[in-house]
Each structure stands twice: as structure tokens, then as C-alpha cells.
Specification:
This is Reverse transcriptase domain-containing protein. By secondary structure, this protein is of the alpha+beta class. The protein is 42% helix and 12% strand.
Length: 222
């Protein structure tokens, strides 16, 4: 895979695609500001992203997520009755989306992801898998048994060492491997409830739940 490239056109397009109705990240910059100022910000962010990638360093300030617990049905005193909604930096989302687009294209074009993998892939869904299995069952003209398994907290269970040791085997450039290593390291969260924030809590395992790059890294680890 060639090194990831960042162009002003690509960065500007990513800025213009931001949903202005989404929340600001931990840095407090609303998406409408980034979208409105896209032509002016694109040259600066292009240089910043290229510098981050070339050095293999993901900015520390982009590694923190604000987690907002949203209550579900049931006892509100039970922590398991809350759905955590994490908010990350918009700058992180932009650089991730650019890298993810080029990385996923490479993995798909070189058939480095199993053809039986339907999750987290463009143009595929669980419904497509159901159609495929139904077709196979009809062709077999007999009885069929199915076993369905679900990996609880799948993203949280990704082992960094295994993932990072596997990336070079895909033919990924050293700079990208270094950048992903930095992307995963020293991450943290803060829990926010009614404007009050908890202390930072380090996250040393798994891939970040809300990050654009996480589904692709999860697939790469399989």
C-alpha cells in the first residue's frame, strides 16, 4: 500500500460533509464553524494531517472522548441501564475518515478481508448475509441447522499487540503502522453528567467505540 496522502480538496470535502447538527467534540468547536470555514481551514489542516502522519504521532488532545450516559429502561441506579454515548474531536474524525477511505480501499482491492465478512463493509449488510445463507439452504434441498453467536463488547476486546503485529503483514507502510500505534496508545475518557465531568480514566485496550477507523481496525484483526 502506498503512503496515505492528504490533499486540500479531500480535506475540504471532509469538512463540508460534517453534520452541523452533531455535538461539538471535547475541544468545544462546533461543526458549523468547521464547515463554514472549510476553504480557509483546508490548507492548514492538510499540512497538520500530513505532519501527524509523517511523524507517526496522533495528537494527544484528540485522544480523549467525553462519554455521556443515556438512561435506558429500568433502575437508574444500575450502571448497566445506561447507554454510553462518546463524543470525540471533530479533527480526529476528519483525519480518520481520510485514512480509513484509503486503507479500506486497499484492503478490499487486494482481497485482504474475507469474502464471508459482511459487517462494517460498504454495500453489505446482515440482510445480505441472510439472503446468501437462505440461498445455500435452498440449494442443499435438505434440512439445515444454524448457530448464531454474538461477541459481547467486540471492539473492547481487540488486543492491541495482536492487531499491531498483524498490520505489516497486510503490506501497510511503516508510517501508517506507526500512526495507528500512536492512535491507539494513551487514550482516555471523561464521563459528563449534567455539565459535571469526572476525572480522566485511561483506556488501554480495544479500539475506540465511536472512531471512524475502529471498524476497519476490528476487521484487520480478524
Amino acid at each position: 500500500m502506498p503512503d496515505v496522502r492528504f490533499s486540500q480538496r479531500t480535506v475540504c470535502k471532509a469538512l463540508l460533509s460534517l453534520d452541523i447538527h452533531k455535538s461539538s467534540g471535547p475541544d468545544g468547536i462546533p461543526p458549523i464553524v468547521l464547515r463554514t470555514c472549510a476553504p480557509e481551514l483546508a490548507p492548514v489542516l492538510t499540512r497538520l494531517f500530513q505532519y501527524s502522519y509523517s511523524l507517526g504521532v496522533f495528537p494527544k488532545s484528540w485522544k480523549t472522548a467525553f462519554v455521556h450516559p443515556i438512561p435506558k429502561k429500568g433502575d437508574r441506579l444500575d450502571p448497566y441501564n445506561y447507554r454510553p454515548i462518546a463524543i470525540t474531536s471533530l479533527f480526529s474524525k476528519i483525519i480518520e475518515s481520510i485514512i480509513n477511505c484509503q486503507l479500506m480501499r486497499y484492503l478490499e482491492n487486494h482481497q485482504l478481508i474475507s469474502d464471508l465478512q459482511y459487517g462494517f463493509r460498504r454495500g453489505r449488510s446482515a440482510g445480505d448475509l441472510q439472503v446468501y445463507l437462505t440461498h445455500r439452504w435452498v440449494e442443499s434441498k435438505g434440512e439445515a441447522l444454524a448457530i448464531s453467536l454474538d461477541i459481547a463488547k467486540a471492539f473492547d476486546r481487540v488486543w492491541h499487540k495482536a492487531l499491531l503485529s498483524k498490520l505489516p503483514s497486510y503490506g501497510l507502510p511503516e508510517k501508517l503502522c506507526n500512526w495507528i500505534t500512536s492512535f491507539l496508545a494513551d487514550r482516555s475518557i471523561k464521563v459528563v453528567v449534567d455539565g459535571a465531568c469526572s476525572d480522566y480514566k485511561p483506556i488501554n485496550a480495544g479500539v475506540p467505540q465511536v472512531c471512524v477507523l475502529s471498524p476497519t481496525l476490528f476487521l484487520a484483526c480478524q
